[in-house]
Write a structure and sequence with these properties.
- By secondary structure, the chain is mainly α.
- The chain has one domain: Non-ribosomal Peptide Synthetase Peptidyl Carrier Protein, Chain A (Orthogonal Bundle).
- 48% of the residues lie in helices and 0% in strands.
- Helix 1 packs across helix 4.
- It starts with 5 loop residues before the first helix and ends with a helix.
Length: 89
C-alpha cells in the first residue's frame, strides 16, 4: 500500500467526516482502492454528499452530468488529484 500524500489524507478526512463512516479512519483508505462498490462501498447518495462537501471546502463544483465522474471518483488518489487541479480555496 502506498503512502498517502497530505492532500489525499485531507480528502480522506473529508470523506470520513462528511459520510460519518464509522470504523474507518482517513489513514485506512488505500490511495488506489475503489471508493464505490468494493473498497469503501460508497453509493450515489454518498457521491452527492461528497460533491457538496468538496464544493464547500475547495470552492469548485463537481457536476453530476460530468462524463469524467467515474474516473474522478474512482479512488482517493484520483479524487485528490482532481481537487488539486481545480481547487480555489
Amino acid at each position: 500500500m502506498s503512502e498517502l500524500t497530505p492532500l489525499e489524507l485531507e480528502v480522506g478526512h473529508l470523506i470520513v467526516d462528511t459520510l460519518n463512516l464509522e470504523d474507518v479512519s482517513a489513514a485506512d483508505i488505500a490511495a488506489e482502492a475503489p471508493l464505490f462498490r468494493e473498497g469503501l462501498g460508497l453509493d450515489s447518495i454518498d457521491a452527492l454528499e461528497l460533491a457538496l462537501a468538496i464544493s464547500r471546502q475547495y470552492g469548485f463544483q463537481l457536476r453530476s452530468d460530468d462524463e469524467n465522474n467515474a474516473r474522478i471518483f474512482s479512488s482517493l488518489r484520483a479524487l485528490a488529484a482532481h481537487i488539486a487541479q481545480h481547487r480555489v480555496n
